[in-house]
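Slack export, channel: ligand-projects

TW: morning all. Re-posting the request from yesterday since it got buried. We need the structure predicted with the small molecule present, not the apo form. The ligand is pyridoxal-5'-phosphate; the SMILES is in the block with the sequence. No rush, but it would help planning for next week.
GE: picking it up
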Amino acid sequence: MTRYTTATDADREAMLAAVGVSSISELIAEQIPQSLLLDRPLDIPEGLSEQEVYTELASLAARNTSAEDEVTFLGAGMYDHYVPSIIDMLLGRSEFLTPYTPYQPEVSQGGLQVMFEYQTAISELTALPVSNASVYEGPSAVGAAAYLAKLVNGKKRIVVSAGVHPHTIQMLGTLAVGYGSEVVVVPLKDGATDQEAWAAAVDGETSCAILQQPNFLGAVEDVQALSDAAKDDSPAVVIGAYDPLTLGVLAPPGETGVDVAVGEGQTLGNRLDFGGPSFGFFAAREAFLRRMPGRIAGETVDVDGRRGFVLTLQTREQHIRREKATSNICTSQALNALAGVVYLGWLGREGLPELANLLVQRTHYARTTLAAIDGVELLHEQPVVREFALRLPGVDVEQLVSYVQDHGVNPGLALTRTHAGTYDDGLLVAVTEQRTKEQIDELAALIGDAIAAQRGGATSANARTEISA
Amino acid sequence: MSTTENTTGRGTKDVHIGDDSAIAREAVLPAAGGSDPRPLAAPTTSVNPIQRDHATTIFEKSVAGRRAFVAPDAGVPEVALDEIIPAAFRRKAPARLPQVTEPELVRHYVRLSRRNFDLDTGFYPLGSCTMKYNPRLHERVGALPGHARLHPFQTADHAQGALEVMYGLERQLAEVSGLPHVCLQPSAGSHGELAGVLLARAYHEARGEKRTKVLTPDTAHGTNPATVTMAGLEVVKVATNPDGGVDIDDLRAKADEDVALIMLTNPNTLGIFDPNIEEIASIVHGVGGVLYYDGANLNAIMGISRPGDMGFDIVHFNLHKSFTQPHGGGGPGSGPIAVSDRIAPYVPVPVIRREEVPAADGEGTTHRFDLVSDPDRLPDGAPGSKTIGKLRGFQGNYGVFVRCYSYILSLGGSGLKDASEVAVLNANYLLAKLEELGVRKQLPLAFGTRCMHEFVISGGPMKRELGIRTLDLAKRLLDHGFHPPTVYFPLLVEEALLIEPVETEARETLDAFAEALAEILREAGEDPTIAQNAPYSTPVRRLDEAGAAKKPRIRQPIA
Ligand SMILES: Cc1ncc(COP(=O)(O)O)c(C=O)c1O
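GE: finished. pasting the full token output, ligand included:
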């Protein structure tokens, strides 16, 4: 008996008698051929008490360096924003935590109304009229949008800016095999999507054209120009992968020619959690409503005329439409989307632009301060919101990261890890509202020290290279 | 709506349906099934007024000037926005988000929560979904900052604890499935299916074969065929035999050299373990196909039988089913896959590597975990060395891994087996109880005589004899404080009710549920309109779904 199973020996006996067998093994042997019964115990150690499991997981947690343990400037897709306390409380409530997809709307009005409010908030944020109730996470939301484009126009070319997150680009290559599509990557110029190359790449055979705002290097793209160019003479669906918090200051996709806006929802009230769970948002023009993936909550009335909500347009979905469904998604990320809508309500109409402005100001300060360090340059000069890329010519950036980390600060992402061969001397730095001026100054000092240390050691490093060459 | 009299003979009283004032006077929460001995009025109107809230949205509660968020001081010299981001790139009007205070926000969402039925409150025998108890320990360990605030781009040396959790979970899942390699990346079951079908494609294509067909039984969950289409292959349906298993003759007829894979659930969505699985495996392997195991029903066989030993090449797990990740109202889940040696080179990256390294004190060796994304850094034939790429960002739903790893540590190998055994016992006991109470005359078992961890009964006879449908029965169950079983599938059973009682439910709960079914049938014999108009005690009553779809209103208009 485990501490979560309820049947005592006496229960088991009575229940077996009711079933008319003498043991559970007999019940199972009646159904599973002898040759397929595992004839040994699972090779997994005996169970532990609650306190032992807690101790083990706590000691594993202690072996990680989290954003609690160091001052982190790491971003590149997920960011160390403050998660308000009410989110922990609300997400911990049994009524939100433990039910499943609201197939029985009469007893799921809470969850369904949350979806309806979430859809409204995402529509407002993106200035696009329709939103679903969430998909898995950021990159796969882009994959889902590309699938919508394929359903809409049947074309086979996916054009994607090199400014899109490298995980997303790699994932598009994986999914394109299934979609029967090819992926064409448009290079960057001065840190932003090369507009001429983009215009040339998008043609009559293009299914969708994908950009990211701000892009992976933090640059604010000229979205209007990119969507205009993509729509000129092409059936392409313009897909924008957005960082939702930056929409506190940046022009929304619905007002800059984007047809489908998706993105990573982690920054909206979700933890870092080493990459998940978070949620992906998915908003579009009205015309695409019946091709959308995933759950959608709709408003209706009950037999007594009371306002209520249901899952609607289910004839798009796998459980009804099977192989003709608009997507295979079933279980999504409802709880994380709840965190998203609570967070947006917490920020509120005035708070979102205020927070965005705070990010812009602190990031601007950090960018100027770091770029002033001897040996540091800007990788690009495009406008940025909360993240920017630096170049440190001649510096081993991974080694610099490790030096700075040894001093309690994580300076950001060494771009060799995502763009080896392209940005080998690049460093991507993110500044959230949790990073203060003092911490930025400390980062600057440490980067200066790290460069000096590497220069100091350069003689011996050069000597080694000469010997091996 | 008419006034209906209580017909149970237990505590007779008149109730006025649809009259909120009468309801408000009876401010009593509906009893959770099995836990409250009070006689149930039929129809009952015991609804808390809070639950009958007027569904005002947070946007409608917005009042200009109210707020919850207070920004910290920027603390840096303020620069005009125009100098940083050109006006043309900026937002002109703010998003019309709600304007509310924190207390209002909390009250709004807490009140909404009370309009949900949940697993901690009552029995939730939703077939195929494994609604088992979610230990709160998992929420506690998941919230430890070392896990919850760990950045996914943190370097491996600073994430050794997380990589050990993932590596450990991979090993545990490999052992449960009987397959050597695990990839944790997919976000849910259907995402695991997509990974699996793309892996099978890559495997065949690497051998120079272009196979286009995927065999799926007609009992398959909707995600199986939907996934096949997204992976660019074609669904070929295989019939079900009278015992509820795969029709072997039909399978033989359809298994040919174009078959890339077969997707099976075993036990299947009828709760039946296919006794011919070895023959099925040999037929499909015989034509060069791959076997895919939809692990939604793994809760029936943990430590008892293993998909790898049955001949499957690829398995997905639903960590939100068998391994207690809370369902969250529809996620987050997680859908890791386990694969055989021949499929392993193609798995998505990054892969976790465990390396022996010299110990810090210079004596002997210790180990270190690494995350590798570059296939060129992997030995030939190793998992990921010919990767299909990625299915999503980063390495998967780590927060879910922490919970499920904790669960497996809590139960241990023998505890997992006990969980499955009790799940099977509970399902068969409930079947026996339904027989004893005469319920199965009108709700007969669709296939077979026994079941694994779940079973399907058919509401066909009930519909013909009593004039109520499965949906009516489901809605009436809500008045008894139970969440109904799955009623939208499997499609091949008329008026199906797919019931999965799970191992964490007590015998008394199963008894109470069986009695509720018996009572609803008895009541329908006297007056079918009661069930036909149910539910009565819920925050709202039957909703106009057709109307919702006809003219979709999917967002709150904002003035
Ligand atoms: C049999 C079966 N297969 C696949 C799935 C899909 O899993 P998920 O919802 O995690 O995507 C489900 C359940 O939802 C299922 O019951």
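GE: first-pass observations. The CA atoms of residues 354 and 369 of chain B lie 5 Å apart. The pocket of pyridoxal-5'-phosphate is lined by residues A 330-331; B 128, 188-190, 221, 223, 265, 269, 294, 296, 318, 333, 335 (CB under 6 Å).
TW: perfect, thank you
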